[in-house]
Design a protein that fits this description.
The chain is of the alpha/beta class and about 425 residues long. It has 13 helices and eleven strands.
Length: about 425
């Protein structure tokens, strides 16, 4: 009996000693919550890098910390608690700085110059709050660096998970033009979808300029710019040898909107004027209030007007401004306000002739008793330049009221197919 008890006790100790290994946390820790598929994919990237180069590579983003001793202690503790050997590294990003620690093989393979290379790979995603995308980009860039330093071919990273609600993009450019409206996120009812599809087809065929709209729940590991560019290219869109057209992407996971222009679209829908206009138009405000059919119709109408004007006269610009119905409404409201002001002035002048009218003093000093000295009073507003902000994930059904537009331009760039694109986008 004692021997059985002793054996059982030894087995229990073995099980308990193995628990810390089994309970090891993810090699990636972010402020944003990860789905099970996203966390699994990042684990697979970690394992691929470790197997190929013998280095445990951890990635961390925590905006609750800034630079300083507290952040340093937090990073050190995370690395010590998760590494299983002496060949390890960690790349950590706080609210205002980033830090890299290397040990063993990682120290031999990476230099201090590489911290800038790695951050450059994730900078755009970090600044826009796309933390999962930043983590994927970190492992992709690290894989390239470690392969170069090791003198071997880069490891083949696992394919990203196919998320539900994402729109598949062909591996090769399709010879057949796809549907100009794909509402994978199911934002429109059947009647609105059919009417919008007909509208996009009519505009595209009449102008020989593809106008494309795609909505989805997720876009995988691509950035909105990459997804919109690739969707347009690989689904056979674009008229003529320059592939004239434009695509609008709506991704509900992070409430991203992105416009990709191609060919003549870069001329007619310029980054410096069209993007600024469209991001403060009915398109944007309807989108922010979840009035999707109104938003998409406004987008299509605006694109049609811009392309027609560019081909018949000259492209709209700061010197040749576009006046939509929304601008006319602003003029009408202004005229109404002026009219009411004039009427109020007339009424005011008539009231002065009535007896008993009380006239206010013209100078504040007339009301002052005693001696009061006032120095110059100023309201001074200070603005902090924010590079990164902590984002909280919201459900795709959450509402968002229209407000000030925020967008950034992509500038002229080449997509994965080699074609030139422009455009820009932001959040809604």
């Amino acid at each position: 009996m004692k021997r059985i008890f002793a054996l059982s006790f030894c087995l229990l100790l073995l099980v308990l000693s193995a628990l810390p290994c089994a309970a090891a946390s993810s090699p990636v820790r972010l402020d944003n919550e990860l789905t099970e598929q996203e966390a699994g994919y990042l684990d697979a990237l970690f394992e691929t890098v470790q197997k190929a180069y013998g280095v445990e590579a951890f990635f961390l983003i925590n905006y609750d910390y800034s630079q300083g001793d507290e952040f340093k202690a937090y990073v050190d503790e995370f690395l010590d608690a998760n590494r299983t050997g002496g060949d390890a590294m960690i790349f950590a990003v706080s609210s205002d700085n980033y830090r890299m620690i290397t040990q063993g093989k990682a120290k031999d393979l990476l230099t201090t110059d590489d911290i800038g290379t790695l951050y450059d790979a994730i900078k755009a995603s970090d600044e826009s709050g796309e933390q999962y995308t930043a983590a994927v980009q970190f492992y992709t860039a690290l894989n390239t660096l470690l392969a170069e330093r090791s003198g071997v071919a880069a490891a083949r990273l696992p394919d990203p998970p196919k998320l539900p609600g994402s729109v598949p993009i062909p591996d090769e450019i399709s010879p057949v033009r796809g549907d100009r409206l794909v509402d994978q996120a199911d934002l429109l009812n059947d009647a609105d979808e059919a009417a919008l599809q007909d509208k996009l087809d009519r505009i595209s065929e009449e102008m020989q300029f593809d106008v494309v709209i795609v909505t989805c729940e997720h876009i995988g590991s691509r950035t909105p710019m990459e997804f919109a560019d690739d969707y347009f290219d690989y689904n056979g869109f674009g008229y003529g040898e320059n592939h004239d057209g434009v695509a609008l992407l709506i991704s509900m996971a992070e409430r991203d909107w992105w416009i990709s222009t191609c060919g003549y679209g870069q001329t007619a829908l310029s980054d410096d004027y069209f993007m600024k206009y469209i991001s403060a138009s009915d398109f944007y405000y309807a989108l922010g209030n979840n009035h999707y059919i109104k938003s998409f119709n406004a987008f299509a109408d605006t694109v049609e007007d811009f392309v027609i004007e560019a081909r018949t006269d000259k492209p709209y610009s700061q010197d040749h401004k576009y006046h939509a119905w929304s601008s006319v409404r602003v003029g009408l409201v202004f005229s109404l306000v002026v009219g009411l002001a004039v009427a109020a002035g007339v009424t005011h002048s008539k009231k002065e002739h009535y007896s008993g009218y009380v006239r206010s003093k013209g100078e504040a000093g007339d009301y002052m008793v005693g001696s009061v000295n006032l120095t110059e009073q100023l309201d001074e507003f200070l603005y902090n330049k924010v590079y990164r902000t902590k984002r909280v994930k919201t459900e795709s059904s959450s509402s968002s009221s229209g407000g000030s537009s925020s967008y950034h331009s992509a500038g002229s760039h080449s997509s994965s197919s080699g074609r030139s694109h422009g455009g820009g986008g932001g959040k809604f």
